[in-house]
């Protein structure tokens, strides 16, 4: 997924540069069992998807939350 650059406020004082996230998934399905291995944000891109003006509290004047780091997992299921 690719996200373009954007600004956090109307005055364009602080913003996020463009970034991309790579998600990978490998799945196998049999008659009775299903299995999946996945990686989200495979290259561990650091980004701040949302920030709010908060003057006087933070040095930048904005409060935000970092985007999700690289996550990996396995899923196993039974079909019936």
Task: Report on the architecture of this protein.
The chain is mostly beta strands. It has one domain. The chain has strands spanning 2-3, 6-7, 15-16, 19-20, 24-29, 33-40, 50-53, 62-65, 71-78. It is elongated, with a radius of gyration of 19 Å. The two termini are 34 Å apart. 1% of the residues are buried.
Descriptive tags:
two-stranded antiparallel sheet; three-stranded antiparallel beta sheet; 80 residues; 48% strand; elongated
Could you outline the blueprint of secondary structure elements for this entry?
Blueprint: E1 2-3, E2 6-7, E3 15-16, E4 19-20, E5 24-29, E6 33-40, E7 50-53, E8 62-65, E9 71-78
Antiparallel strand pairs: 1-4, 2-3, 5-6, 6-9, 7-8
Uncertain residue ranges: none
- The beta-strand count equals 9
Instruction: Tell me about the largest β-sheet.
Output: 3 strands, antiparallel
Count of runs of 4 or more consecutive helical residues: 0
Q: Report the β-strand fraction as a percent range.
A: over 45%
Helix content, binned percent: under 10%
Task: Tell the overall outline.
Answer: elongated
Tally of individual domains? 1
Based on CA atoms alone, the radius of gyration comes out at 19 Å
- Assembly state of the chains shown: single chain
**Looking across the biggest beta sheet, what order are the strands in?**
5-6-9
């Amino acid at each position: 997924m690719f996200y373009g650059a954007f600004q956090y406020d109307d005055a364009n004082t602080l913003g996020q540069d463009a970034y991309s996230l790579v998600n990978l998934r490998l799945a196998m399905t049999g008659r009775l069992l299903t299995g999946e291995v996945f990686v989200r944000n495979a290259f561990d891109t650091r980004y701040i998807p949302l920030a709010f003006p908060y003057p006087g509290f933070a040095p930048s004047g904005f409060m935000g939350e970092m985007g999700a780091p690289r996550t990996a997992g396995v899923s196993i299921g039974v079909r019936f």
